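Page 42, continued from yesterday. The earlier attempt failed because a stray header line got pasted into the input along with the sequence. Redoing it now with the clean sequence only.
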Amino acid sequence: MKAIVWTKYGSPDVLQFQEVAKPVPQDNEVLIKIKATTVTAGDCEMRRLQLPLMLSFPMRLYAGLLKPKRIPILGQEFAGKVEAVGKQVTAYKIGDQLFGTTGFGFGAYAEYICLVAKPSPMQGILAVKPTNLSYEEAAAVPTAGLEALHFLRKANLQPDQKVLIIGAGGSIGTFAVQLARHLGAEVTGVDSTEKLDMLRAIGANHVIDYTKEEYTNSGAAYDLIIDVVGGRRVARRLKLLQQDGYYFLAYAGLSHLLLGWWISLTSSKKLKIESSSQKKADLIFLKELIEAGALKPVIDRCYPLEQTAEAHRFAETGQKKGNIAITVAPLLTA
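This time it went through. Structure tokens are written below.
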């Protein structure tokens, strides 16, 4: 089968289009013919081994000291069709259209993957694909959609509360805008000029162009802030948070951990640095919202599998609107 092999740690050039052995499902596994996958921030961080909260060295020990050996193929999320099932599998049958995540094994940048039919949290999640999405759209849902859902649920978001989403035009941000609006919140999205029309189109009540406006001095107050940008300006953005409000930081460093500790001592504000625990029930919840027309993934562009390195390059420009999809198998072979 064709796959994108992760040959070294470094730039997108380390991703090589190669022929590798097609996997064979074990008794508790399904063999999935992957139709589409995505390029996530996590894929790019893994490729470079530039991970948050000092995880680079432990992950290098796991993946391979000098080059990746235990994880030869990247790719965290996918959509595809069941081609074979192990003899213990009863949850799925040949021909089922599925979507989900691969867990710590990665491996979605390939034509086929074997996954446990009833995975543990470390092994990802599987569910039947939404009927009204293409494979590319479905592949973009699990990782970012579950993160956005986690933040909103953890904050117990209520109707008419005010939400600020920093980096609203990216993968997590576009899901967070739609989910917060679905819950009845008043949503303000912050991003660059070229993404503002898209944010309005998906439901943002207000938009802020961070390239033209110093919004941290606005005096506005928000019940919930979702920050998928991070960086050095988190302390300034915290001024916009109401007392007892939640500030979720998707990408954090050691300084943010110290800031969170200080904020907890000096105020009732809550700075949270955490990720979602991937649960099938939550993915099915997103699927139901999608099929009801309340949620739709935003796809900036699609690349063929052999151009995955180029897709990584574009992802790292910061210019993408929503998600970047990789078409693994042409739809006319579906």
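Notes: The mean pLDDT is 93.
Reminder to self: strip header lines before submitting.
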